[in-house]
Design goal:
The protein is an alpha/beta fold. Helix content is about 25%, strand content about 25%. Helix 2 (about 30-35) packs across helix 3.
Length: about 190
């Protein structure tokens, strides 16, 4: 892992501002997440923000086959926006490193574009593993800063840059991680 910055600007207030600026979000990697949702699953989107995978799943018409849809983020603005559109999404405000969920509660836990923002990314993976049931799936994605679409862009919120091997090694203690590239994103799909 390569540290990109010493300054951590990842706060709820910062992201409330970012979300209200109306930035476009590349949703292709989120679609790969929600394709895995099956009937009866309990699903959690960590660091959901706006246009997280549970919100996109609902926008695509998905609902009836899911037992529970949850989202957790520290942005009050994101929660209001998502819940106003989809009140059935159980959207909580909180810390993704200390979630309020029971051990092994979820069938699918995803975190899109979150791990690179974490001061200690291994703590995020550990918490994901704690709340994912045995046999369940953990998924993350992170933008490749060297991809064509990222050239010249700045990501001031990003603390870390990962290689595919870095990501695989973070998940190895908790399951069977599989790396997959989805357009401009490095993704890990890890069965517990």
């Amino acid at each position: 892992m390569k540290r990109l910055t010493e300054k951590n600007i990842n706060t709820g207030e910062h992201f409330d501002e970012v979300f209200t600026e109306g930035k476009d979000f590349d949703v292709e990697r989120q679609v790969e997440f929600y394709k895995l949702i099956q009937q009866g699953m309990k699903v959690l989107d960590l660091g959901a923000g706006i246009k997280g995978f549970v919100e996109l799943f609902r926008e695509s018409g998905g609902k009836d086959n899911v037992a529970e849809l949850h989202a957790l983020d520290f942005s009050e603005y994101a929660k209001r926006e998502v819940v106003n559109k989809y009140p059935d999404i159980q959207y909580a405000i909180g810390n993704v490193l200390e979630t309020p969920y029971e051990d092994g509660y979820f069938d699918l836990v995803g975190a899109g574009e979150l791990i690179e923002h974490m001061e200690k990314p291994e703590y995020l993976v550990k918490e994901m593993a704690r709340i994912t049931k045995q046999g369940g799936m953990m998924i993350i994605s992170t933008v490749d800063p060297d991809c064509e679409d990222s050239k010249g862009k700045e990501y001031p919120e990003h603390i870390w840059q990962f290689t595919p091997e870095d990501l695989i090694n973070l998940f190895k203690p908790y399951g069977e991680p599989q790396y997959r590239r989805v357009r401009n994103y490095d993704c890990i799909f890890c069965r517990r």
